[in-house]
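Question (not urgent): is this output format expected?
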Amino acid sequence: MLEEKDKDEEIIEFLENYEYSESLSIFFSLRKDCLGVIDPPIVLEHQIQKSDGSRISIQDLEMLVKDGELRKLKVPRSIPSKNMTSCIGYSLKSDIFRVLNIRIREKYLNLENQVNGCFLDCLFNGEKRVSLLQEISRLIKVVFQDFKTISANNKQLSDHLSLISNSWKSEYRICENHNKILDGDFLLDILIRFGILRRDASDLHNLIFTTPSMGLFIQFLESGNSIIVNSLRRSKYKELFEDKFYSLKLGKSLLPIDFHLKDLHGTGIIKRM
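Got this back:
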């Protein structure tokens, strides 16, 4: 685990300092704005823009998506004026893993009692928690490696996870009660509960990849954006000098004002002159 962490840190350091990609430079600048506020950080595709607001090529980001280092996400939005119900976002795979490993430990290391009939050597027993943590972490890595798309077919993913559940059964001792429920759907439920996948209301046959921070990210965006837009509407000519925004209190949002302005400009809600 330590070696993987060191490798991820080396990759991030290399990408952050890579001087020949404008899109990567902007991505990591926006990621830095999120660190400590939204974890794992999420950067929206339409925020990848120059200082004058013009969009730039995201080819380098797409290459990282294909390599599996960057996850491409469908971010739910509700912007009726632009007929927008979602937009594209990006999050580093290593950032997602870091947060998930913390959540997995918090959930399983604090369990007090196993289910009735669960013997001591069962993978899901408290005595085997370290092995279970390792398997869940490995499960997530396998899914991210094999499914690099925004969404995955429900049945295809469940069938894929069934093979993994069978390998657990052959490698570990598992009590009768857990053996009955350990299948592809059981592992799928684990991924959903840890905030890696969510159901797609517009397509019941697919599941969408997400992050544990998605809900808070959307809440912050909507809160801060609404305050900025309302302040513009209240101004006499529906325009303000940009420095006026920096004195605004952005409601529930802890994201910096520039992060919001790039989002609002990228969606076409406001124009930077």
